[in-house]
Amino acid sequence: MVGIIISTLLAHPPVPSYVDRPSSVVRDVAVSLQPRLDDELESYQLDTIVSSVSIAGERWDVDPLFLLSLGWVESRLTPTALGDGGKSHGMYQINVNTAWGRKGSASPCRRSGVCGKKALRCMSGRDQCALAIEISTDTAAYLLSKYRFKWPGHGAVIYNCGRRCCVKRSSRGKCLRHARWTGTARKYFSTYRRIIRDIADAPGI
């Protein structure tokens, strides 16, 4: 049994837990992932991204740098991104229905009282955009945390493809086994590992 658990965790790395990182490091990583951020994003958007990944990461026990990795893979850290035929919104490409969650859930989007596409994607004006970045980041961290504890070692895979990841169900429809990996989930971790390696190699950090 122990061997099965170890092999499962090795096959599906757990979502990295929160690490208290200086905002200057988080900002440098964001710009290194997408250099155009310094030029194309208004300063408040970049500042909001940096503060949001730190706050949400601490709240839901997710490394802020993993949230940046997730956002980069999903949208190249683009707050205005729209994908999947208009169904996925913002930096983290979150579906509105997923963001809502079930009634009574702890979903930050649902609890914000403004859950919808405008709560997940920058669409109009500074205030709306800043709020969308904050809510979408908080929601992404919440989902990673939720999936991590419900399906240990599968958090990032479930985040990426949800119910489509289920490869075996019970007669009642409960998922018994998930896909071992998805290409996108692999990219979350490869990007994260590269960031950690670069930080380790950087002098003074």
List keywords for this structure.
5 strands; 205 residues; globular; two-stranded antiparallel sheet; mainly alpha; 3-stranded antiparallel beta sheet
Strand arrangement across the biggest beta sheet: 1-2-3
Instruction: Give the radius of gyration.
Output: 17 Å
The residue fraction in helices comes out at: 55-70%
Measured by DSSP, the beta-strand proportion falls in 5-15%
Q: What is the terminal-to-terminal distance?
A: 40 Å
Shape: globular
- The helix count comes to 11
Order of helices and strands: HHHHHEEEHHHHHEEH
Secondary structure: number of strands: 5
The averaged pLDDT comes out at 85
| Low-confidence sequence ranges | 1-10
**Largest beta-sheet details:** 3 strands, antiparallel
Output the structural class: mainly alpha
Summarize the model shown.
This protein is mostly helical and about 200 residues long. Helix content is about 60%, strand content about 5%. β4 (about 165-170) and β5 form a beta hairpin.
Describe the protein's topology.
Layout: H1 2-11, H2 23-33, H3 37-40, H4 43-60, H5 64-75, E1 82-83, E2 88-89, E3 94-95, H6 96-100, H7 108-112, H8 117-120, H9 126-150, H10 155-161, E4 166-169, E5 175-178, H11 183-201
Antiparallel strand pairs: 1-2, 2-3, 4-5
Helix pairs in contact: 2-4, 2-5, 4-5, 4-9, 5-11, 9-10, 10-11
Verbal overview:
- The protein is mainly alpha-helical and 205 residues long.
- It is 59% helix and 7% strand.
- It has eleven helices and five strands, in the order αααααβββαααααββα.
- The strands form two sheets. Strands 1-2-3 form a three-stranded antiparallel sheet. Strands 4-5 form a two-stranded antiparallel sheet.
- A hairpin with a 4-residue loop joins strand 2 and strand 3.
- Helix 2 runs parallel beside helix 5, helix 4 crosses helix 5 and helix 5 crosses helix 11.
- It is globular.
- The N terminus is likely disordered.
